[in-house]
Amino acid sequence: MTATTWNELPRAAFDLETTGTDPETARIVTASVIVVNGRSEIIHHREWLVDPGVEIPEAAAAVHGVTTAKARAEGQDAASAVAEIAGHLKDLFATMPVMAFNASYDFTVLNREAARYGVEPLTPAPVIDPLVLDRHVDRYRRGKRTLTAMSEFYQVPLVDAHTSLADAAATVGVADAIASRYAEVRTDPFELHAAQVNWQQAWAANFQEFLRRKNPEAVVDGTWPVNPAFSG
């Protein structure tokens, strides 16, 4: 009898849309958390629309569709939203893995927001990151590895890309597709989390070596799933 693996059990997915691409300064604009059952059907979802307390750049609003005016008029205050998001994820981590695409971005943003508002920081584990998985199992494949590109490659529907709910659902689909193809990732979630820490470090070291052919000072941080905070 084959043991049941994480992709056949309840699991969650998490996604943020924010004010920018730098996780050190980005503020949360929307957040979505979904839970799926063993058949990958959504059985719970929760969403937040947040007033980030700063102007939302036009470029960011063009991606996710939330303007400064909308966030101010309809959004929850950032401090309470960050506390709720972190608390909700903490509860989920107690019973299941949480998936996030490019997890080091989303969990670093949440970590910095928690510090900003005096919220207890989350220790995210076990995390399953389909970007890290894909880079490891199919490292020599050419082309982009955005969520949109990987959804297309793995034939996962992605409707309303760059809304946090749609991206969370696609994250589940891509992770499931990778698990169905590669037995290596169908392991205990905590063991997989530890493996991803090593896989991300290996990818970063290789990418840094590549970049240093043109820029000897290039640095690629391989810390996962939360980037280290700057000191000083």
TrEMBL record:
Enzyme class: transferase
Domain Exonuclease: 10-184
E.C. code: 2.7.7.7
UniProt cross-references to Pfam families, sorted A to Z: RNase_T
Transmembrane annotation, as ranges: none
GO terms for MF: 3'-5' exonuclease activity; DNA-directed DNA polymerase activity; nucleic acid binding
Keyword Nucleotidyltransferase among record annotations: yes
Magnesium recorded as keyword: no
GO cellular component terms, semicolon-separated: cytosol
Keywords associated with the record: Exonuclease, Hydrolase, Nuclease, Nucleotidyltransferase, Transferase
Signal peptide: none
UniProt cross-references to InterPro entries, sorted A to Z: Ribonucl_H, RNaseH-like_sf, RNaseH_sf
Protein name as catalogued: DNA polymerase-3 subunit epsilon
Lineage per the UniProt record: Bacteria, Bacillati, Actinomycetota, Actinomycetes, Micrococcales
